[in-house]
């Protein structure tokens, strides 16, 4: 290797340190960080990088990270100060640290901790460490200030918290939501513990440790791969905080699963936890339960409610919660979900997800709705440690049958030249997608894979976003289907059969199965159709077979040229 580091954008030469071979990091003036996995200090350097930067890619020999304002804010809010960030970067870098990096770190961390946001006596308070900090932000948020309490604090509209956090972030005075839970005498104590069977893995404990800094709880997002034990992590966070918890899940089935997880991993009694869905009647509900689990859609619904639902929501909104625990938190940026969070009084918010990906840019809003990302696990390390399966992925290309190809090509021809008329742009895309999804050659491959793996006694999930194709396969092979219209009772029965089957078994899922269906027994996933390049969906479906098992395969069956 040449004894210089030439950055392609700056065209500057950076002399390598004499002992550069022992140092694992290349740090670019633009904030890119390359970590060499062969380094003897890889583990320490990887932990450091994930704490202060966003992971971009993880190849076998190199990992790439990116320093961003959000990542630096998250690190600083978790107690990592600028001095130590710079110190460790200098220590681990093969070259001298560029002045731009030092300035970037100092700029985006200097004001972290100067402003705090907290709930007190039902009101949202913003408090500064100094008069100067408060005077700096007041001109930007004055229209939502309800009352000035002192030179260092003021009360704001609870429905404008997201707006205030965003304004403060724009002027580089980020708000940290803190909760002095140990000294809170108004919010009752839960008094529950982890059950003896709950064996925390190191990364689960580490992720929750990031929430609790300096004896206080801070709101934030934890990212763990599918199969890495998000449920136990959420239960542990609840137990450790020791205050009443409102837990949001994605579906009615996942509400049942979360209630079961709380009972399995903690000492909470049946009379202290309550699951609530849109079908729950008021007389069936213990609204004084210390832990309530409900769905985003039920709580965030803005249309006409039944009398029972109105009564339930009114009681939940009127309570003061120690913790809001949000599963599949990448869904929260949706308008009705974020409004639901805004109108709920809580001291601390913790979001859980397997992937911080949305195909829009709204994922960035989580910082203002909940808080910064505080921890993200490296799935490759979890695989190496045996916590996750080493999945084999195959893409099976299937030629389109002549008849289907003829109809497919007609969609591109004008009506007078043998083309298919009467389709607008969206209809044409829909027909094209259906032709690709239901390509007979593709379905034959799917049928073969199902028969093969059922003979191996595998438990198989077949995903198809195209409902026509899903029904075709289900009817032809007589397989059970879970789709949007499937009732809660039917879903529960199908999941029970899948889990208890002692031989090869197959269930067909539409995209409703992407999240919040706990099917750890699955050993094979076959994907017939998808959202066309959605990274989040691919990660979630792959996660269905990430729990360690003897067999773990994922097939993407695509029409040739479709991918």
Automatic annotation (TrEMBL):
Q: Where is the Helicase C-terminal domain?
A: 444-563
Predominant place of localization: nucleus
Q: Residue limits of the Helicase ATP-binding domain?
A: 211-374
Compartment(s) of residence: Nucleus
**Pfam family name, one:** Helicase_C_3
Q: Which SMART domains match?
A: DEXDc (SM00487), HELICc (SM00490)
Provide the GO biological process annotations.
nucleotide-excision repair; transcription initiation at RNA polymerase II promoter
Reported EC number(s) for this entry are 5.6.2.4
Chain intervals for the UniProt region annotation (Disordered): 1-23
The UniProt catalytic activity note for this protein reads:
ATP + H2O = ADP + phosphate + H(+); Couples ATP hydrolysis with the unwinding of duplex DNA by translocating in the 3'-5' direction
Out of the domains of life, which is the source? Eukaryota
Q: What class of enzyme is it?
A: isomerase
**What Gene Ontology terms describe where this protein resides (cellular component)?**
nucleotide-excision repair factor 3 complex; transcription factor TFIIH holo complex; transcription preinitiation complex
* Gene Ontology MF term list: 3'-5' DNA helicase activity; ATP binding; DNA binding; hydrolase activity
Q: Which controlled-vocabulary keywords does the entry list?
A: ATP-binding, DNA damage, DNA repair, DNA-binding, Helicase, Hydrolase, Isomerase, Nucleotide-binding, Nucleus
Similarity comment: family membership: Belongs to the helicase family. RAD25/XPB subfamily.
| UniProt protein name | DNA 3'-5' helicase
Q: Species lineage, top-down?
A: Eukaryota, Viridiplantae, Streptophyta, Embryophyta, Tracheophyta
């Amino acid at each position: 290797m040449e004894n210089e580091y030439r950055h392609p954008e700056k065209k500057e030469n950076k002399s390598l340190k004499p002992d550069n071979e022992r140092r694992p990091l290349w740090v670019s003036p633009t904030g890119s960080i390359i970590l060499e996995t062969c380094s003897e200090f890889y583990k320490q350097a990887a932990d450091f990088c994930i704490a202060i930067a966003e992971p971009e890619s993880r190849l076998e020999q190199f990992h790439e990270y990116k320093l961003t304002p959000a990542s630096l804010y998250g690190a600083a809010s978790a107690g990592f100060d600028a001095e130590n960030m710079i110190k460790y970067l200098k220590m681990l870098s093969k070259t001298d640290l560029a002045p731009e990096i030092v300035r970037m770190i100092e700029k985006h961390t200097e004001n972290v901790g100067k402003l705090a946001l907290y709930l007190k006596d039902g009101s949202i308070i913003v408090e500064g460490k100094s008069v100067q900090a408060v005077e700096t932000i007041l001109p930007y948020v004055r229209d939502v200030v309800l009352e000035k309490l002192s030179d260092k604090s003021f009360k704001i509209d609870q429905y404008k918290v997201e707006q205030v956090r965003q304004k403060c972030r724009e002027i580089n005075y980020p708000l940290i939501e803190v909760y002095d839970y140990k000294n809170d005498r108004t919010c009752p104590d839960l008094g529950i513990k982890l059950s003896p069977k709950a064996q925390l893995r190191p990364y689960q404990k580490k992720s929750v440790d990031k929430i609790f800094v300096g004896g206080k709880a801070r709101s934030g997002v934890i990212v763990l791969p599918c199969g890495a034990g998000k449920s136990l992590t959420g239960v542990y966070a609840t137990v450790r905080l020791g205050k009443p918890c409102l837990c949001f899940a994605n579906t009615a089935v996942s509400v049942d699963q979360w209630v079961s997880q709380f009972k399995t991993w903690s000492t909470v009694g049946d009379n202290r936890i309550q699951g609530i869905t849109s079908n729950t009647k008021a007389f069936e509900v213990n609204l004084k339960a210390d832990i309530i689990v409900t769905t985003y859609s039920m709580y965030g619904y803005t249309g006409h409610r039944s009398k029972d639902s109105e009564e339930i929501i009114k009681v939940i909104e009127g309570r003061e919660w120690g913790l809001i625990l949000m599963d599949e938190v990448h869904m929260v940026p949706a308008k009705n979900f974020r409004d639901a969070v805004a109108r709920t009084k809580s001291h601390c918010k913790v979001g859980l997800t397997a992937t911080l990906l949305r195909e829009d840019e709204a994922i960035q809003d989580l910082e203002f709705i909940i808080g910064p990302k505080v921890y993200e696990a490296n799935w490759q390390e979890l695989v190496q440690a045996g916590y996750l399966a080493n999945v084999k992925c195959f893409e099976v290309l299937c030629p389109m049958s002549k008849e289907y190809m003829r109809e497919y090509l007609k969609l591109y021809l004008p009506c007078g030249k043998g083309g298919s008329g009467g389709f607008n742009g969206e209809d044409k895309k829909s027909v094209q997608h259906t032709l690709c999804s239901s390509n007979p050659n593709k379905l034959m491959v799917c049928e073969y894979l199902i028969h093969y793996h059922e003979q191996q006694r595998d438990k198989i999930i077949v995903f198809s976003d195209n409902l026509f194709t899903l029904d075709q396969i289900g009817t032809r092979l007589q397989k059970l289907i879970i789709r949007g219209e499937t009732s809660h009772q039917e879903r529960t029965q199908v999941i029970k059969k899948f889990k208890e089957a002692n031989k090869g078994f197959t269930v067909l899922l539409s995209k409703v199965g992407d999240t919040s269906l706990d099917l750890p027994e699955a050993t094979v996933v076959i994907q017939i159709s998808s959202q066309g390049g959605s990274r989040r969906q691919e990660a979630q479906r792959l996660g269905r077979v990430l729990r360690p098992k003897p067999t773990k395969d994922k097939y993407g069956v695509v029409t040739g040229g479709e991918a």
